[in-house]
Amino acid sequence: xxxxxxxxxxxxxxxxxxxxxxxxxxxxxxxxxxxxxxxxxxxxxxxxxxxxxxxxxxxxxxxxxxxxxxxxxxxxxxxxxxxxxxxxxxxxxxxxxxxxxxxxxxxxxxxxxxxxxxxxxxxxxxxxxxxxxxxxxxxxxxxxxxxxxxxxxxxxxxxxxxxxxxxxxxx
Amino acid sequence: xxxxxxxxxxxxxxxxxxxxxxxxxxxxxxxxxxxxxxxxxxxxxxxxxxxxxxxxxxxxxxxxxxxxxxxxxxxxxxxxxxxxxxxxxxxxxxxxxxxxxxxxxxxxxxxxxxxxxxxxxxxxxxxxxxxxxxxxxxxxxxxxxxxxxxxxxxxxxxxxx
Lengths: 171, 161
Description:
The structure holds 2 protein chains of 2 kinds. Chain A is of the alpha+beta class. Chain A has helices at 2-19, 32-39, 50-57, 85-93, 111-124, 139-144, and strands at residues 23-24, 62-64, 69-77, 109-110, 126-130, 148-155, 161-169. The longest helix of chain B has 30 residues, at 131-160.
């Protein structure tokens, strides 16, 4: 009899748990340490030279104070061959992240979708520096992208990296 | 002024009719991320530098006057306008545009900063409702423009002295 009662409680609870979809935010995947180690291993205060960084990332998006401070607007591009109109439409129409529930749920997305997207980004993504010149070319990628950040670099008079910061852009 | 009165009446009518549902600020309609007042709490004129601002907030959306003025802009949802009913019901997010303006002095230190905000309704500009976001957006941008030009005039008059 006790077992029966227990089952009456446990079975509906299991059903309810199954119905509830686990959601996550991309912040849980793209931690600062992950971003640096995976995408920007060359950034090290007191060590990295301006030329070394430029060799890897190319010219910066913007410069300030006569080049002492430079900023790179970086996005990780999963679409090596470009994002086609139809694929972009699929992303938008199926409410695929970042559109998924961004209105209602503050960017929370089902874990299975986030896992899949993270895996694909981690595997196929490449660093893309956005500039005024190429911004319009990658408009679709910017809208559909989930990992974009500003890298701010401050150099000393010997062109050695003095300070840096990564500012994640909210998708 | 008449337009503003009409808009206020219309908004009041819609709210009382239950077709505008206010919500806490959420989502990001446009812009590259919101900057809350907590983030800029420690900004101090003559002490905070351009370097600190950039390291904290990232690249500005626009700069003016030889990078002496920075502009950051973003829009968030603050309400929904619900129209129709049953299966034909639709909703339109009503947003709030916020602009953060920062000015630096010649020594690259913070001179002043201010948040300017106003409503924003993302919509099709060809439709009737589409003209509203344009109006609101222009009003916010006008205030931002005044903020920047006010100081420019002041700068010119100082130089003249």
